[in-house]
Amino acid sequence: NDSLNSERTLTFKKNELELSNENISNSLEKLKTMQNQLIESEKNASMGQLISGIAHEINTPIGICITSASYLDEQSKEFFNKFFSNDITKKDFENYINTQQTSSSLINENLRKASELISVFKQVSVDQDLDTPRAFQLGHFIEELLSSFNHKIKNRDIETVFECQQDFEVNTYAGSLIIILTHLINNSLLHAFDELDKGIITITLSLEEDKAILDYQDNGCGMSEENSKNMLSPFFTTKRFQGSCGLGMNIVYNQATQKLLGQLSCSSSPDKGVYISLSFPRVIESEL
C-alpha cells in the first residue's frame, strides 16, 4: 500500500510539474509575442515620425510655389489689362519682366526641392518594406535623413552637425539605418535635451578598410553609470510614465548587430552627453 501510495503521489507530482512547465512555456511564448509586437510597433512609430517630418518639409517649398504662382498670376492680369488698354509704359514692362523672372526662379527652385523630398519619401517607404540590401551613397543618404528632422528642431536651439570627409557607397539595409538614426535622434530630443534650451548632435561618418564607422554624439544631460549600463536592455527607460516603453535602444542594438552585422558601443556620464559608435560591413551580400 505504501509503495502504491508513493507511486500515485509521484505520478501526481509529475503531472503537476508537467502542467506547470506547460503553463510557463505558454507564458514565455505569450511574452515573446507581446515583445515582438511592441518592437514592431516601435519600428512603425519611428517610420511614421520620419515620414511625417518629410511631409512637413514638403509643405514649405509647395507653399512658396503657390504664393509665387498666385503673385505672378495677379501681376500678369494687371500687365495684360494695361497692355490691351494701351496704357503700358516701359517701366511697367521692365517691372513685369523682373517679376516674371523672380517668380519663375522661385517656383522652379522650390519644385526641385519638393521633388527631392518626394524622392526621399518614396525611398523611405521602399526601405521600410525592403528586406534585402541595396547599394547607395551613405553620406548623401544620412544628409537626406537629417533633413527630415528640421521641423522638430527648428523651433528649438538644437544644431545637427554631419561630418563626412568623403562619401562612399555601401550595400546594406537602408531601412535598418533609418530605424537606428531615427531612434538615436529622438532619444536625444526626448532625453538629452528635454530640459535644456540648446544642444548639438554630431554625426561623423568614416571608412576603415571594409567597415563603415558611424559615430553619434550629443552634448546633452547624459546619464548615470548605472543607467548607461542598462541603456541597451529591453524595456529600460527613465521616462516610463511619459509614454516610453524602453525598447528604442534595444531595437537600435538588434538592428545594428543582427541586420547590419555590425558592432555597437555606448558610453555616457552626467552632464557629458552620450556617445554611440556603430561599425558595420560596407557590403552585405543579398541572401539567395
TrEMBL record:
<feature type="domain" description="Histidine kinase">
    <location>
        <begin position="53"/>
        <end position="284"/>
    </location>
</feature>
<dbReference type="InterPro" id="IPR003594">
    <property type="entry name" value="HATPase_dom"/>
</dbReference>
<protein>
    <recommendedName>
        <fullName>histidine kinase</fullName>
        <ecNumber>2.7.13.3</ecNumber>
    </recommendedName>
</protein>
<keyword id="KW-0175">Coiled coil</keyword>
<dbReference type="InterPro" id="IPR036097">
    <property type="entry name" value="HisK_dim/P_sf"/>
</dbReference>
<dbReference type="InterPro" id="IPR003661">
    <property type="entry name" value="HisK_dim/P_dom"/>
</dbReference>
<dbReference type="GO" id="GO:0000155">
    <property type="term" value="F:phosphorelay sensor kinase activity"/>
</dbReference>
<dbReference type="InterPro" id="IPR005467">
    <property type="entry name" value="His_kinase_dom"/>
</dbReference>
<dbReference type="Pfam" id="PF02518">
    <property type="entry name" value="HATPase_c"/>
</dbReference>
<dbReference type="InterPro" id="IPR036890">
    <property type="entry name" value="HATPase_C_sf"/>
</dbReference>
<feature type="coiled-coil region">
    <location>
        <begin position="14"/>
        <end position="44"/>
    </location>
</feature>
